[in-house]
Amino acid sequence: MTRSVSNPWLHRFAVLTAIATFALVGLGGLVTSHNVGMSVPDWPTTYGYNMFRFPMSQWVGGIMYEHTHRLMGTIVGVLVVILTRWLGGRPSCKPLVFVGALEIVAGCALLWLAPNLRGTGHFLWGVGVVVLLAGLVLIRNKPAPGSLVALGWIVFVLVQVQGLLGGLRVVLIKDAIGIFHALLAQFFFVLLCAIALFTSRWWQNLGEKVPQLTDRGGLRRLLIFGTLLIFAQLMLGATMRHQHAGLSIPDFPLAYHKLWPPTDPASVRSYNQHRLDVEETNPITAFQIILQMVHRIVALFIFCAVAVTAWKARRNLGSRHPLSKFSVLWLGLIFFQIILGAATIWSNKAADIATAHVMTGALSLVLGALLTIVAFRVLIPVRVAAIQRAETASSTVLAGKPVATSAK
Amino acid sequence: MKIHPRFLVIPALVAGLSAASAADITGTVTLNGTPPEEKIIDMSAIADCSKQHPEPVKTQFYVVGANNGLKDVVVCLKNVSKSTGDSAAPLVLDQKGCEYIPYIAAVQTGQKIVIKNSDPVFHNVDVIPTQDGNKPANKAQAPGAPDITISFPKEENFLRFKCDVHPWMFAYVTVVDNPYFAVTDKDGKYTIKDVPPGKYTIAAAHRKANGNKPVEKEIEVKPDGTVVDFTIDLPK
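ok -> structure tokens follow
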């Protein structure tokens, strides 16, 4: 398992990058909640302007959300490049210089050879300049432990892929790219939070403060299950939101005043005829109605899974164990998320509430992932514990000492 | 080669007779039921939009005039493929006061739609067709920018235009494969001009009331014109 580095400033920078990414997730959520993802048709320019020189007087309406999202994406990109350089230390300079130069050349080549990919060309050479500069920084710092360096390179690649996906979603007018962009953002956020965890003093001291215990309650599996279920729920949520059809079911906890709503063509036609929203969204379909019903049901499953996890953690590890405490926090977050989901419907998908729902979903995923990582460090499977006890017992017998009682 | 005038007589007679026998279909579309209140569009967040409207702007879901006449109903002949869109005058769709004018329109396949920006603000013209063959588009249009011209090769009901900068801005254009269509005025009245006599299916579609299931009638257009009225029921 990854061990942290003892550099508090690196940890603080990782935390800063994670917080900036969380803000970026929120801004992206606002874009979709306000249904303004297409309000800036060109990329990486903004209405023909260099995006850093677009007049603030024109940051109005949908442009404000989309443009600030792009600017924040640029900030996160720069932070991630710096983080990658910091984690990689001096040995990362050459690869960064190489990649940066390659991106500049590729970007210029695209501008020259493929005019219809101008946006991608400008994006590549711009990113390449930042990467090249990072590689030319002469600070001779030591690299972090191997797996942290690898994580740094992964987020380095992902942040650029994210930028590209965001741009292509707009210029190619593809909602499917928007869904993938949203999901990759969640995964990217998890990785950044993991880097923040691994660079923390808390993680470094965890082995001393929290002894390894046997995982009698199957907590590790429960945590993986709960986290994956949350990710599946985020996939459902992203798919729902990128239909750009508003609320497919306008009431909660019932659905069109029923436990399960009719989805025959006549009923769906009637639902659409009665929708009179100022921001006229796409007509709803039977698929979207069913999607929202599945989203509601999965929310219940998630609540149960996390509740069982929290209960088992307290029962098997005690209430003072970090896993127990954070599992209760996780449960509280899920409960709050359910309230936000209901509020999203009751408020007719008010953009701020819907976005809070997205951000809480991101936090739920991150907390589940980090709990899982911690669990895999402080809990050992029953069979492994049994093997360890047997080995300890046999070595103790050989040494002529009494056999110690095992940990819980 | 010089054509003698006598050889032009018969084609001229045929053209004249065709024009003389083409007739108009007129009528009124009424709404059966009391429509819900229109909603006020809040433009206050964008001063350049709100200052152009001294009175509150409302949605136009059901615009009902005298004697329950229903505006914005697209009336057209079905199953007639005779587009003259290539030579038809373009439809002008204007962005003015941060609204699309007109809100509901109809064009032929291949007919140009010219989109203007008469506002002092940026708009994006986001075109969202649903029929295969009609391409989506999303174009920026700064204040004073050149007009955007677009056309569609396939029939489609209520093809959506929107502005994502101003999320209340929509227009819907029905694309028809013939020149025989009209959109009802504020009193629900329409006129479809120059229809050759014969038997046809005529349909009336209102976007909210019955957009997915137009009211259809079998009619016979007489040389001296035909009146076809429709009643559209408010959805229950």
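Residues 184 and 221 of chain B are 19 Å apart (CA to CA).
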